[in-house]
Amino acid sequence: MMFLLKQFLALTGLTAMETMRRPLCVLLTASAVVSVALIPLVTVYQFGEKGRLARDSGLAVHFVIGLIVAAYAACSALTRELRDGTAAAALSKPVGRTLFFLAKFAGVAAIVLAFSACATVATLLAERVAERYVEFEASTLCVTDIRTGIALAGAPFLAYLLAGIVNYRSRRPFQSTAFGLMALLVGLALLSSALFDRMGRWAPFEFRVAWRIVPAGLLVTLGLLIFAALALGFSTRLNTITTLTLCGALFVTGLMSDYWFGKYAGDSVSALAAHRLVPNWQHFWVSDFLAGGGAVPAQYLARAGGYWLVCLTGILLLGVVSFRHTEVN
Amino acid sequence: MPGIGKDMNERSDHIALRTEKLVKVFRDFWRRPKARAVDGVDLEIRRGEIFGLLGPNGSGKSTTIKVLLGLLRPSSGTAEVLGFPPRAIAAKAMIGYLPEESRLYDYLTPRETLEFYGRLFDFDRRARAERIEQLLEMVGLSHAAHRCVGEFSKGMARRVGLAQALVNDPRLLILDEPTSGLDPIGRRQVKDLLLALAKRGKTILLSSHLLADVEDVCDRVAILYNGRIRAQGSISRLLERRDHVRFTVPALPPDAMKDLLARLRQAVGSEPWVDHPSRNLEQFFLEVVEQAHQAADVPSGAATTGKLADFLTENPE
Prior knowledge:
The complex is a heterodimer of chains A (329) and B (317). By secondary structure, chain A is mainly alpha-helical. Chain A has one domain. Chain A is built from 13 helices and 2 strands, in the order H-H-H-H-H-E-E-H-H-H-H-H-H-H-H. Chain A has a two-stranded antiparallel ribbon with strand order 1-2. In chain A, helix 5 packs antiparallel against helix 13. The radius of gyration of chain A is 22 Å and the shape is globular. By secondary structure, chain B is of the alpha/beta class. Chain B contains 12 helices and 9 strands. In chain B, helix 5 packs antiparallel against helix 6. Chain B is globular and about 70 Å long. The two termini of chain B are 31 Å apart. The chains are: A mainly alpha (329), B alpha/beta (317).
């Protein structure tokens, strides 16, 4: 059992590291952080809802770029390995196919989680950066937290710069170093935001961010993990283009599931089956809950978590069955 | 009947790898037969033997190997590896496999690559680290251990591939084109390595297009064409020409030579073929490069060591 765990960790670590060292992975994560950081800095929309705009846009960027990260990681983890033959070399070792497939998913999931952590922190900070009215010396000012915004938007650039220096001095791989440093610097931006208020005055040890965004980010992450599992499942048999096409079709179908199938589910067995079987991404998009200072109810989180667990287990099981019969040529 | 069972077991103990009427048919998307890559192959490879699988492109060599590794399912027939079915984990723990192309993770360094493959086997961290160092030294890549293998030349990547195949000190080594992409020095080293491993009782199955390499190391060969075995047997038996004789003697004085030729002409009834034996080009090349190597600086590619990893020389089978 211990040996199986060691094999699982070796395969998981390899998948995560290989994906992290691919230039596109760090580039997508950097794009997500910079895009989210720029939303409150460059939008001219007013009416006192800039915070909401930053929050909703941040979650949307998280979801959309996350879909690309998940599909890319899944395809490079399995389709590319099957095509290039690295899977054949690994499967010629004493590794079971079920373990191999599940470890590949765990590696992809690790990348999705790391990406989501960066995107969620970026959304938290972007919402803080957004312009709002504050009381200052008996008057009301409209303030944008430029310092936090610059710290957040600058994190990826600084990470690239530092990774270049590290690569030059110690020959550590550039991409994975940049990825790690970016996660670290985004985290540091969050910590440093606890030291200053919106006006940039020293006011330590109080996070001035809307933590209620975290459950919303978590739900988006769960949706991305289902998408990654789908992409990995298709990758056991299909090439990249077909995998991405089918995943895209299922994503759209899942988004429209309530409208297309849900309202006919009471009258039609096939509509009911489609409504039950196609992953419904609407469960993982809850930005409306956050409007007007609201939060995601714990009950909803538990229900969505249960749905996610059932959905993910089903997809992974189908993937395992498919991969057990895949011919590794 | 117990006697027969015992005979079968003893026979099985001596056989590392066996296929019987092995067939592999590739099918298209609609499950229609597309190509019959392997067509009724019967093989029996004894333990401690170096066996060569020869054949032109598309003759079914790699497909046969993949069936033996459990990567492909046979359409019919049976295969047995070290007494186990090809998909058995227990069998795979005793196999080392070098794929046809050097299929490696581009963004890993050689050390990380060997570390990864080593972790798939059940031996402790210290032993793994020692083996990795020894293997890197053996394949001449210690100085390039920090570079990503995606940057390597084909020959250097091949060396990493060979090292990963040996990381578990396998009882059965399956090598698909082991010397392709290697320079003559690398090829010589690989051949020496194979002979040394066979001497230790390892079984080796190799497929290759490079007939001279196969001739140098293999005990027996099978020649495949269109998925069928067309010839099989020991190299000496297959290549021997029993209707001709060759003598090799030190250079003779002209009179003795003339006399000998006259006698031969009389005995054979035709003109005998006489020439001076020459060194082969591989030997000559290796001598020239060895001289250059003595005077060379730090190499940019693979550094030749010629040293076998210590763990591969311990505990003969």
